Amino acid sequence: EVQLVESGGGLVQPGGSLRLSCAASGFIFASSDMRWARQAPGKGLEWVSTILRDGRTLYADSVKGRFTISRDNIKNTVYLQMSSLKPEDTAVYYCAPGSNPRDDNYPGKGTQVTVSS
């Protein structure tokens, strides 16, 4: 059974930083592409970033240059380092295996990020 546990969210001021973590189990993590998406209040899911199994990374234009995705194949964990945060980054953030940005299957509960002064 695929299990994903997102953590690291919280309340941060505009311009601040947070690092999200996603602990994965139930599948071969090192052989899997991984992605992050977010859902803002009253809006649909928005793909944020993907890290491929070979380490290549992809970003949505809205976060490019501010967010960095990384992975630790020993810890079966994918990270999302978020910097220069804006109020519009406020959302619940989810991770999932796979690289399809249009896949809306996110089994975890997500972690809430709130950017506000």
Describe this structure in words.
There is one protein chain. The chain is mainly beta and 117 residues long. Helices cover 0% and strands 48% of the residues. The protein contains no helices and 10 strands. It is globular, with a radius of gyration of 13 Å.
What order do the helices and strands come in, and which of them pair?
Layout: E1 3-7, E2 10-12, E3 18-25, E4 34-39, E5 45-51, E6 57-59, E7 67-72, E8 77-82, E9 91-97, E10 111-115
Parallel strand pairs: 2-10
Antiparallel strand pairs: 1-3, 3-8, 4-5, 4-9, 5-6, 7-8, 9-10
Element pattern in H and E: EEEEEEEEEE
Order of strands, main sheet, comes to: 2-10-9-4-5-6
State the end-to-end CA separation: 40 Å
What's the mean pLDDT score?
97
Structural class: mainly beta
Tally of helical runs: 0
Largest β sheet strand count, sense and barrel closure: 6 strands, mixed
Number of strands: 10
Which percent range describes the beta-strand content?
over 45%
Over all CA atoms, what is the radius of gyration?
A: 13 Å
Low-confidence spans: none
Oligomer: single chain
Which bin fits the share of residues in helices? under 10%
| Envelope shape | globular
In short, what is this structure?
The protein is mainly beta and 117 residues long. The chain contains no helices and ten strands.
Attribute tags:
117 residues; mainly beta
